[in-house]
Amino acid sequence: MQARQLRSGRTGGTAGLPIRMAYAALAWVIVFFAFHVYWYAGGAFGRAGALPALVPDSVGGWIFEVLVVSAFPLGAGVCLAIARGWPRGSMRRAAAVVVWLGCALLALRGGSGLVDDLTRAAGLLPNGITGLSLEETMGTAHPSASELWSSYATDAYFAVGGLIFGLLACRYRTRRVTRACCARAYCRRGSKQGIPQQ
Question: DSSP letters along the chain, please?
């Protein structure tokens, strides 16, 4: 039983936390993707202003579009792989890099968005930290209250995503060290008690 727990990473305490965080990150990606499908299908709930065009009209726009679209399956796949314990060796390191990159991008997007919202709402910077007007950022110079609150919620959702991915990245790295230490301790105790090693 204990050997199986060591192999699965469920050694008690917080050992199962990376799995829960991986599923939480996966849920974040799925909800984010689902809302975008809903918005582009014509839904208005939670939408903060006009949506970017599905077909970009510039090379930079296409590059951005490809990166954003590919981020959905990549993020979901990595989170599911971590939750199931699939990555090994170099793939584990690659998964950790993807998670850390996701954390950095989401935290930067969410944090800067929240600061931009606060500086606009407080009147400190009429055009926020970006220097862009509401019409440039939301597609209208006079957004409704629901559109403004949707914008705040979107920025907060990005920040929460950055926190989830950050916790996953930290615990995913710590889990590797913890499992190695537990395995060594179990082997030493087994050798002293005459337990055959598997």
Answer: -HHHHHHHT--STTTTHHHHHHHHHHHHHHHHHHHHHHHHTT--TT--SPPPPSS-SSHHHHHHHHHHHHHHHHHHHHHHHHHHT---THHHHHHHHHHHHHHHHHHHHHHHHHHHHHHHHTTS-TTTTTT--HHHHHS-SS--HHHHHHHHHHHHHHHHHHHHHHHHHHHHHHHHHHHHHHHHHHHHHHHHHTPPP-
